[in-house]
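step=predict obj=Cobyric acid synthase n=537
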Amino acid sequence: MNGRFGQSGNPGGGLLVAGTTSDAGKSVVTAGICRWLVRQGVKVAPFKAQNMSLNSFVTREGAEIGRAQAMQAAAARVEPTALMNPVLLKPGGERSSQVVLLGKPVGELSARGYHAGRQEELFGTVTDCLAELRRTHDAVICEGAGSPAEINLRRSDIVNMGIARAARLPVVVVGDIDRGGVFASFFGTTALLSPEDQALVAGYLVNKFRGDVTLLEPGLEMLRQLTGRPTLGVLPYAHGLGIDEEDGLRVSLRGAVRESVVAPPVGADVLRVAVCAVPLMSNFTDVDALAAEPGVVVRFVDRAEELADADLVVLPGTRGTVRALAWLRERGLADAIARRAAEGRPVLGICGGYQMLGERIEDEVESKAGTVAGLGLLPVRVRFAPDKTLARPVGTALGEPVEGYEIHHGVAEVSGGETFLSDDQGRSLDGCRAGSVWGTHWHGSLESDGFRRAFLRRVAADAGRAFVPAPDTRFGALREEQLDRLGDLIEEHADTGALLRLIEKGVPAGLPFVPPGAPRPVDPSDHSDSLEGGRTT
């Protein structure tokens, strides 16, 4: 399909992918639709009005957005921009989040403060961003957040039915059948919406189905009879998609990073990597490139004894560096890491993890804890600055080119050790190495294939392992394969003709109302004061 959707002078086509719950599969379905459309010759962009995530990315213009939207932009084969995720909420605890607006932090707000007023103030910015994307693209595939039937938050909603109503977007609701109760979830989601909102819900998508789809068909027909809406596809459960997840708060502490089957080790040994699952862990996708290497086994850990057989320990990024440092000490992990360093066994700190490895942290910004002693494993002192560093640096390390991105308030003063990342003249750019302990602020550096292999060779030598990195692992190519698999899922298992009609022509007329509809609004002051109670991922 070529050319713009709609008539000349009108905005491009659009669709909102909502979900019965958080983690129903909205992000992957949105990415899959984007990849399928771009393969049809459609100029498409992703959009999520508001995202709550500790997994973020920096665009070329230096704006911070959710990594899920960066992944969706890659699926659409377009450069990610702040327009695609105008509001990003980064939890800093149970009751507050940093608000990132158009890629820049604008302050901290409690859940009550955000939902009681600030969210509605941002609605104009959100609709303007969507309008600009629709003006410059044939189609925009929007992702909702949580559930559109969060009736306690509907008054201030800017990401689900609020944006759908404002832009007259047809809505497809995704349900995760692997959790069970998908028919009740579809029906209940629809029946809890107001008549005006229900009029935009055009159909359903079943996600993560296992088994014989013919056994599901009687239920799908009954759902159509009950709601007057079709199911537009049944997507099978697919292992090892490996796309960027939104929320590090729900990472399994002992699960494998990915379920995909990789090739056997090239050398005689495997390499075991233990990632400390610190509180408010951010950008845990940094270790995905390690998990993609044949013979590298990555797991998340939260106990000191789980470090015993690790060849490499990774301290990942975190939105709460001082809090994570206290957590490491409380659990005995700090002492275990110090013993490793004394024995010459490899440790890598990334962003907040790098800061924790230093001698001292001065923080009057994030935790406001003042001066706190670090682990003392790197000759580095960190001072938290009010302004956040957001950058896309390039350099070299271990003789190989490296690209990364920076998202941090901490400013590191290095007083010794060896240079980690440098420019082409050998001048230090970032990070530090002392013996077998390494630290850097650069997220994503391990996605640089040559550097990753060189680093793993060094880790294997220090760990005494006969591990050999595979010579041909290309992380970028693996990501592309995974995005193509998402596009295949849509092309092969969804009603693509129906999806195209929705994107091009909008909401079909005459969709029936499903009683009872939304309840009467409650007192606007009766908002949950916990982020979990008002979750919008």
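step=describe
Residues 247-260, 523-537 have pLDDT under 50 and may be disordered.
step=end
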